[in-house]
Amino acid sequence: MLAAAVIPQLIYMQGLRADQPTRPNIVLIMADDMGLGDTSAYQDFTGNSDADQLATPQMERLARMGVRFTDAHTPSSRCTPTRYALLTGRDPWRTRLKHFVLYGSQGDPLIEADRPTLGTLFQQNGYRTGMVGKWHVGLRYRQSDGRPAAAWLDADMTQPLLDGPLDHGFDAAWFTSRSHGTSGPDGDPLGSKGGPGHIENRMMVTATGPRTFTTEGPDAYELNKLGSRHSDHAIEFLNAHAANGESATKPFFLYYPSNSNHGPYTPDESIAGRKVAGAGRMKDGSSASTRLDYVYENDVALGRLLDWLDNQDDPRWPGHALSENTVVIFTSDNGAERSNSTCTGPFRSNKSSCYEGGHRVPFLVSWPAGGVGKGDDSTPGLNSATLTSHSDLFATFSDLLNEELPNLTDGEKGAEDSYSVLPAWQGESQTRATPLFVNDHKEARQYGKVGDPAVLAMRIDNPVVDGEEVPGQWKVFFGANLLRRGQANPRELYNLADDPQEQNNLVKDRKWKKLLAYLAEVGTERRSSGGQRISDACNHPSITFTQTDLANAISDKPAFQLKQHGVSLTITAVSDRRNGSTWTATSAGLGLSGGESPRVDSGEAIIVTADQDILVESIHLFAGEGACGGFYQIGKAAPLSIYCSDADAENEGTKDQTGIMHDFGVLKAGTPLKLAAAPFLGVESPGSWTIRSLSVRPLN
């Protein structure tokens, strides 16, 4: 166990009653596009009037039972990256997706096969795991012969999924592939980016042919019946678990990311007999809008789960209701999709913005038996101003389970950016030890004509600069060069302690020049470290082997060496060409000559090994008129697709074919890092690219 994780675990263990099970049940509910102002549980915080405030009594109930966080944030201002970070404990911009969401009918999985998730964490600790709702971190379909499908047009919906929730830690799943309006057969008028509708475990429920679906009957995909369907499946999962004899020894984990209230607004008529559409009310008693009815749908679904837990005896703790030893969390995936002071409270902007309104969200948590609130909804409840991110859930749950986090310096992966806030859950005062990051900023156009939204915002409270504390809640915005090229260029600076609405940009104020330099240094280091938890083990300066270094080192042999500052790399060419391949060095970079071009083509690969443990910070690839495809793999770990820029980008026709790949992680001495141009999973287009540079850091 990491030293920082020991204290909260001791606090938790000391608070257990003699007969209390040590592993609580977990119910994690995440709404879609719901801002702080969308729930009356935060009305006193946002300042909404009764006429403007939707009444959400079940969220108020949960807040009174537990702890309400007022400085909780999503890791991104959009849904796909937030879901990735919540499940993995890794900042989402460390994937190929630097902004936007997975788009298209398939949206290749962001989570590789061997990456730990909350699902696998709980499975490995004896939990029964279930998922209901919106997945949106990527799927992989199959062709009719069972092989992986490259896209929608070669997929057969009667075949089981090749990759989905069951491959990432869930025993059962009822879900939509992405947002409900685009997940069904009619999701795209052109037909190329539709979806299969309801998916249960691995099967497309309504499929009647490779890409045909039933439109009638109880399984027809109807948007305004999803609320009750998901709620019913959640209760089905819980009832099945309770009826199983294993319940006496196994806890459960239910991940419930609802489709509501992402547009289009399609509230269900009712859930378990409780009316939804037309039933939402403002705090002054007036009727709510259709959008707010859809928000209210989340409240009704939450109340049904809380009632079920209250009314169910705990088979692992006789004489107690399940609600006593169940962690219940309610939150949102990003700020509201509407930009107004009612939805987002007093904060600037909304969804897809790095301003506070885009990522400061509701976060309510209760666990009576674990000291997280009292579990009594007649009490006022507790408040916490602790700074926290959804990516912190992995480390927090690991603390709760007394589970060690993956050892990153030993080459393991997982929870790279996760920080436990269990003490804050339990009412302790806690100061965040690491920066908090948020990415994707639609207002990036103010930075210049290009307006690349791959902006990264970083929050550090009361930093120590040159030995002196600089009081404040400091938030800096870095232009897209930090995520794309590892170069920090501060564009905005705010002190949220004095300016929570982010109106006074201090970036040009010379008074803060030293602070800005410090923040840029921290941002650059954390961006390039491969994970915040590994930063302290990698405080050596970066070593870059340039295009000139590569060109000067090659020979007519398959392997050559690069040496700099005590680090020695061996670069080896691999080829299945009859006559092999030889090194080429052109103005485009390092390539191989055995294929169709002087680049690395299909059938060719480059392998990198080191004489000591290193962190591979980045590799600069250039494709030019080629294709930035293929895969890379460290040792026997799961392969990942090679990218040069965003995959599934918003403007698909303008993909840049050159870019810098970051976040490879630790490469142990002698372990190969393979970069191959062969099609990822054998069905995509092969790559054709060169290497221009690579940057590494030795471990301490």
Automatic annotation (TrEMBL):
Residues 24-402 form the Sulfatase N-terminal domain. GO terms for molecular function: arylsulfatase activity; metal ion binding. PROSITE patterns: SULFATASE_2. InterPro entries: Alkaline_phosphatase_core_sf, Sulfatase, Sulfatase_CS, Sulfatase_N. Pfam families: Sulfatase. Coiled coil: none annotated. Keywords: Calcium, Hydrolase, Metal-binding. It comes from the Bacteria. Belongs to the sulfatase family. This is Sulfatase. It comes from Rubinisphaera brasiliensis (strain ATCC 49424 / DSM 5305 / JCM 21570 / IAM 15109 / NBRC 103401 / IFAM 1448) (Planctomyces brasiliensis).
